[in-house]
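To whoever is on call:

I kicked off a structure prediction for a single chain this morning and the downstream step that reads the tokens threw a length-mismatch warning. I double-checked the sequence; it's 88 residues and nothing unusual in it as far as I can see. Pasting both halves so you can look.
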Amino acid sequence: MTPGFAKHTHQPTAGALRAALDLQPNPALVDSTAELIDRETGLRDLMDIFEAILAEAGDLIETRSPELVAQARATLRRYHDESPRQAE
């Protein structure tokens, strides 16, 4: 893990919550289903790593491919958290 790499609480990612809402007919089980999706797919870990890469190397990557960085940041906003930290 990189320094400053924040560990998240056990709140499920926005993407996992959307998936759980689609999959889980019982509203009382949506949060636990979303947490299970995050844990079993590694989504939370992958998004944290992805965010750390953008934070460390986003400017460098942006000089060669600004479209790629814009797409990566948009993906983080959509799937990571409802109010993600700025990955710059």
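Update from on-call: the warning came from a stale cache, not from the record. Cleared it. Sanity check on the structure: The two ends are 18 Å apart (CA to CA).
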